[in-house]
Structure prediction request, 315 residues.
Amino acid sequence: MCSNLVQFSNKINSHEFVDIVTQTVNILKKERRERSRHNNKIENDCVWIKIPENLVIIGDIHGDIKSLHKILDEINFEVFLANKNNKLVFLGDYIDRGSSSVEVLYTICKIKQTYPDSVVLMRGNHEASEEFPFQSYDLPQSIEKYFGSSESNKIHSLMLELFRFLTVMTIIEDHLLIVHGGLPVHVNESIKEIGSPSNKNKTLLLLEEILWNDPRIINSSANWEISRRPYGKHFGSSITQKWLDTTQTKVLVRGHEPCMGYRVDHDEMILTLFSCKESYPKFEAGYLYIKNNELSSIKNASELSKHVRKINSSD
Ligand SMILES: [Mn+2]
Prediction:
């Protein structure tokens, strides 16, 4: 079991939960206002990070607290996160499907609040149910079940506020482009504008694509097609290539699709990570752990995939 920081065996008190989430919202607001956090640069919904000493990227968790604990234990998170030059990036989709959405939210807020310089919390499509409603959003029921009906509306509203302050694109300078779902099919967007309050409609379109898109092999000249999902698109490899060129990065890292811990797509330009097991028994869970000297020589997603560590959450 994880250390003292995150107590899982005890029931989380609603006051404590509200307190931790509120403090996290305040930290995220401050980062956006000051446009920086330690060595990270923040513009609207995007974060730029200089190559960290050690980098961990965790994919979809979907309420699977066991898998999250396992990863935090394996990386020895208290030591790892106490070094501000180490970065832990979450790809979003913390909630729904699994049995412990409340515990997962508590845990990610607690570590962000304790180690604000080392943790980046990104937004997944499950954290944008207001903007893009969909069926498998079961967080309201989980909150009600955990805290009771009298407090559930207030707590759910607070969660929606938290979700609005999560960022949607992370760039590890010169190396990695990181999103939850995929890349918008039109590449000539200024990425600093993503999430800018000045053009709400455009922002919403970009948000939909980043949170919902999936990479596919596409033969049409436009290089994209409508998604099989309720929102978003399938994008082809020429779109990935253009985005990597534009952002001067080498590999796109994203989550959003169950796989055997990881998957490589688009001529080794994309690494998909998936980090939970509970609701996906046929798939595997993994996360990325890479040191700076290893990351500096990475040329493609296959090389990067050698640094994926699979977890066995059944023990
Ligand atoms: Mn997703």
